[in-house]
Amino acid sequence: MNELDSANVLGSTMLFPDQCEQAWTESSSLSFGDRYKNIYNIVVCGMGGSRFPPKTIKELFRDRIKEPYEIVEDYTLPSYVDSDTLVILSSYSGTTEEVISCANDAIKRGSRITGVTSGGQIAQILREHTGYVFTPKHNPSDQPRIGGGYLLMGHIGLLKALNLLEIDSSEVEEAIKFIREQTSNIQSKAKDLAKELKDKHTFIITSEFLKGFGNGFGNQLNETAKIISDPRNIPELNHHLMEGLKYPDTLHTNGLFLFFVSDLYSAQVQKRYRVTEEVVKKQNIQTLNVVLTGKTKLSQALEAYTLSGFTSFYLAMFNNLDPSKIPWVDYFKKELAKD
Predict the structure, then answer these.
(1) Domain that holds residue 83
(2) Is the entire prediction scored with pTM above 0.85?
(3) 255, 147: one domain
(4) Residue 117 falls within a domain, yes or no?
(5) Do 194 and 121 share a structural domain?
(6) What is the total count of domains within the chain?
(7) Judging by beta carbons within 10 Å of its beta carbon (0-12, 13-18, 19+), is residue 74 exposed, middle or buried?
(8) Which of 60, 132, 285, 296 is the most buried (most CB within 10 A)?
């Protein structure tokens, strides 16, 4: 492990509670002027490891965010973005070209601009506006997906400071305390889960407030563990996916449905989980349940991310890989930069 983990991904993963605490404390205390009042919609621009935190927030707080909230994963903003729109730039490095392109678009349209970043051109833009520029002292690996606590709680803190999300500090503090106390136990569970996921095509099944997390776990498995992943959600998958499990034949050997089970899902969805698992088993595909124990939706989301971070790391170890390296993404960016 010491030889493979040259960037200290494990150390960053263990510091997830500290990332969350730092980001929440710093971002929620930001002061926004009159320019940021009377906002009518929110557009977040982000890619990869800087996209799944706001996607998590969109689903986690869909009943509490006060204005329409959309995520853009492209070079341009929707046509409706104007001076009454809050554009949130999400880029851990501050150098993501799609986000920079959207930032320039937002400036031309006179939008209210804020964001979450650690530096780069995005930080320069935010100096002319108001945003959260953090120092990632609890992410020695310097990998955005391993520093998800900064993006996740940084965005939540921004929305709190802007009065666009009603959330008490006590709710956040209790959730962070919970995962801090449970880190060792979750880490042990992650080792066992990683063994189950090795050499599997994993279907990550989530619902309602955890749908954004499902996408985040898929991202971590791709980049950190270098394995394919397939985030899906109930009830949507019940309308088509169950009929697509007959072929290819390899699916019955390599496929695994990983259900994230929560007692905070609605009663209808909890029933669907039981029947969906039955249907999958009847088609001879392996299933596995992860039962979340947090008392609140935020606690369960942080619990799930703690588990996914450790699981992705240990999968990389079992596959004899450096979890920090992303050679194909690096190659792609290098080729893209050529004239």
Answers:
(1) 9-167
(2) yes
(3) no
(4) yes
(5) no
(6) 2
(7) exposed
(8) 132
Q: Are residues 15 and 163 in the same domain?
A: yes
In whole angstroms, what is the distance from residue 110 CA to residue 193 CA? 48
Residue 54 and residue 163 in one domain = yes
User: How far is it, in rounded angstroms, from Cα 330 to Cα 325?
Assistant: 9
In this structure, the answer to whether residues 126 and 197 fall within a common structural domain is no
Strands 255-261 and 229-233: unpaired
Query: In the structure encoding, which two tokens stand for residue 218, read together?
Result: 């898929």
Residue 249 domain-assigned (yes or no): yes
> pLDDT tens digits for the chain (339 residues)?
989 999 999 999 999 999 999 999 999 999 999 999 999 999 999 999 899 999 999 999 999 999 999 999 999 999 999 999 999 999 999 999 999 999 999 999 999 999 999 999 999 999 999 999 999 999 999 888 899 999 999 999 999 999 999 999 999 999 999 999 999 999 999 999 999 999 999 999 999 999 999 999 999 999 999 999 999 999 999 999 999 999 999 999 999 999 999 999 999 999 999 999 999 999 999 999 999 999 999 999 999 999 999 999 999 999 999 999 999 999 998 998 897
Q: 27: Cβ–Cβ under 8 A, 6 or more apart, which residues?
A: 116, 132, 134, 153, 154, 155, 156, 157, 158, 160, 161
User: Environment class of residue 31 by beta-carbon count within 10 Å: exposed (0-12), middle (13-18) or buried (19+)?
Assistant: exposed
Q: Is the dihedral of CA 120, 124, 129, 134 positive or negative?
A: positive
293 closest CA partner among 285, 280, 302: 302
| Cα-based distances in Å from 183 to 21, 53, 99, 307 | 14, 20, 33, 9
Number of CB atoms found within 10 A of residue 253's CB = 13
Provide the residue type at 20 as one letter.
Answer: C
